[in-house]
UniProtKB/TrEMBL annotation:
<dbReference type="InterPro" id="IPR036291">
    <property type="entry name" value="NAD(P)-bd_dom_sf"/>
</dbReference>
<comment type="similarity">
    <text>Belongs to the short-chain dehydrogenases/reductases (SDR) family.</text>
</comment>
<dbReference type="InterPro" id="IPR002347">
    <property type="entry name" value="SDR_fam"/>
</dbReference>
<dbReference type="GO" id="GO:0030497">
    <property type="term" value="P:fatty acid elongation"/>
</dbReference>
<dbReference type="Pfam" id="PF13561">
    <property type="entry name" value="adh_short_C2"/>
</dbReference>
<dbReference type="InterPro" id="IPR057326">
    <property type="entry name" value="KR_dom"/>
</dbReference>
<dbReference type="GO" id="GO:0016616">
    <property type="term" value="F:oxidoreductase activity, acting on the CH-OH group of donors, NAD or NADP as acceptor"/>
</dbReference>
<keyword id="KW-0560">Oxidoreductase</keyword>
<feature type="domain" description="Ketoreductase">
    <location>
        <begin position="3"/>
        <end position="171"/>
    </location>
</feature>
<protein>
    <submittedName>
        <fullName>Unannotated protein</fullName>
    </submittedName>
</protein>
Length: 234
């Protein structure tokens, strides 16, 4: 497998696992991060998905140095968790602009080369929270749910040009972020997951590898849960 893949938020956690997996698969992987750096010897570009100018500059640099982008994984995101009554306007705007608006703008810019090539893969990383809700995460859940509508609408727009658009909805994943969860809350979470454990970042990366490959060429507009059964029925 050859081609250029861009993974936003690919400098740690799920994004890093995705970037490493795609590199192993044979892609020329570029990580987009606010710092413009990435570990594990990965190529990186400075990219803030909440800033439209940053998206345009990053694509221009990647295309000049590596060539047209074939796979885009919109993984970058932030959280500003609190009950809605306490949530500031900035908490709402920042999360929606980064997690939803940033992913939409990223896909829009990626389409330039994909439409010319009549081939491409766009993969949005959503969350089980966007499907079943979570108290204290109204902004985050709204953004992650919005990715589903965006992906399915875009899939209808560009399907005839050989471009697929899909969504992965992870559940609780074993990352630095979840490692900070208290033992009581961790037991509560695991009690709700039929498989009784967190996902490993590599398990999310494996689904990205599949969706990016030829075997998934007839899959578009899909929402694939990787949540241990937590969101069953949602």
């Amino acid at each position: 497998m050859t081609g250029v893949a861009l993974v936003t938020g690919g400098n740690r956690g799920i994004g890093l696992a995705i970037a490493l997996r795609l590199r192993e698969t044979g892609y020329s992987v570029v990580v987009g991060s606010r710092s413009g750096t990435a570990p594990e010897g990965l190529s990186a570009v400075e990219l803030d998905v909440s800033d439209p100018a940053s998206i345009l500059a990053a694509f221009e640099r990647i295309e000049a140095e590596f060539g047209p982008i074939e796979v885009v994984v919109a993984n970058a995101g932030i959280t500003r968790d609190t009950l809605l009554m306490r949530m500031s306007d900035d908490d709402i705007d920042a999360v929606l602009n980064t997690n939803l608006g940033g992913s939409i703008r990223l896909a829009r810019r990626a389409l330039r080369s994909m439409l010319k090539a009549k081939h491409g893969r766009i993969i949005f990383i959503s969350s089980v929270v966007g499907l079943m809700g979570s108290a204290g995460q109204v902004n985050y859940a709204a953004a992650k749910a919005g990715l589903v509508g965006a992906a399915r609408s875009l899939a209808r727009e560009v399907g005839s040009r050989g471009i697929t658009v899909n969504v992965i909805a992870p559940g609780f994943v074993d990352t630095d972020m979840t490692a900070e969860v208290g033992e009581e809350r961790k037991a509560e979470i695991l009690g709700a997951v039929p498989l009784g454990r967190y996902a490993q970042p590599a398990e999310i990366a494996g689904v990205v590898e599949f969706l990016a490959g030829e075997a998934a060429g007839y899959i578009t507009g899909a929402v694939i849960p990787v949540d241990g059964g937590l969101g069953m029925g949602h």
